[in-house]
From TrEMBL:
SUPFAM superfamilies: Phase 1 flagellin. PANTHER family: FLAGELLAR HOOK PROTEIN, FLAGELLAR HOOK-ASSOCIATED PROTEIN 1. The lineage of its organism: Bacteria, Bacillati, Actinomycetota, Actinomycetes, Propionibacteriales. Residues 8-38 form the Flagellar basal body rod protein N-terminal domain. It comes from Nocardioides bruguierae. GO terms for biological process: bacterial-type flagellum assembly. It comes from the Bacteria. Belongs to the flagella basal body rod proteins family. This is Flagellar hook-associated protein 1. Keywords: Bacterial flagellum, Cell projection, Cilium, Flagellum, Secreted.
Amino acid sequence: MSGTLSSLNSALSALRYQRVAIETASANVANVGVEGFTRRRVTAETLGAPSVPAMWSRYTGPDGGVRTSGVERLADPLMEARSRTEHAKLAYLETRTTALTRLESGIGEPGDSGVSAALSDFRDTWDDLANDPSSIAARGQVIAAAAALADSFAAQAANIDNEEATQRLTATGLVGEVNTIAVELSETNRAINAGRLDGTDTSSLHDTRDRLAKQLTTITGGTATERSDGGLDITVGGVKLVDGMQAGSLAIASGITPDGDADGLPVSYEITLGGSTSAHTSSLSGELGATTELLNTTLPGYADHLNTVVRDFADAVNAAHVAGHDLDGGTGNPFFTYDPADPASTLTVAVTDRQVAASDVAGSLDGGVADRLAASGTAELAYQQLVSGRGTEVASAKRLTATQQLLTTQVDTAKEQLSGVNLDEEMVDMVAAQRAYEAAARVMSTVDTVLDTLINRTGLVR
């Protein structure tokens, strides 16, 4: 539009644009500190001459006016992807560290109630018996110390079993959470696509999309890929879990029964999407990856090592005991019995106090066997190596977690500098929009005065 009235139209477009700018700044301020909110900025374009020239005339008016071309989210896709990756690594390390620390606390070493103390008491009772092989009380102390030692080993095994049960429940809960979030993300992708076609602002939907994708990748360690329609696809270990507006289902394929018990197999997963089921063969990361590694590798490895210590200890005691003679001169019997499949949980004293074989020679109370059993320290060394190895692993996990926490914080800080709300910047933008709004209103008042002069005052005869 050219002519005097075009100035009114230009002022009107400025008023509209600056109003949107003020509303956007106000929304940014209102959402300061809200997790997942990304700062918005209004983008504009100048209204100029017609883009298609007329055949018999030309546009002689000036360029003028402005219109809102959209509301831009100040987000960097590469920074978002980096943030998701680092948070998945941190979740993996934190989950692992928490479980290992809890397991270490259950070991109770060093302390007066752990296996080391029970082993020391067991050796001391044999030493007391060697000093007085005829003492029924000393033999009773040997039996009592052996029973206490067996209970200590059983407590260690129960601690591992309890941790495995906790991790199985955790894995089951995480799988359910993944499926719920996957459905929400697919619905958000659908809403983004519909909003894009309708031409409406989808900034809030994109915030929701990024938040859900971060939750999914934090749990599974998966990757998110942006689609041309604005949605996000989620791939877990090379298998798609969310494909646009379609959500897949993650399920436990083996290792955990529906009741949360172990089925004797390693924990594995499968993803069903679009009627087809794909086995998840790649390693997971995130919370679920740490839980899976604990169930498949870490906890069974510690249980196997503990069982080896118990088996070797019991076999060594039995070998020395059967070579000796008891209080009545009979040949010694195996001192301990256990289930070969689970020695730590089933270790049991198999003799009575009179059957304790302390002597080398039948009919002689020399205490030679008791001396050897009191002096042996092979089991103590093996157990110390087990505990030291576990302690080193826990310390390493804590160091890695602290390092990853620093890296994640750095990435989040860089992301916040771009996407976070800065109240000083918003205040400046709001004041600038306010002043521009006032200037546009002044232009409209000026044009109104000019038109009043032209219409009502020009040509008057006095």
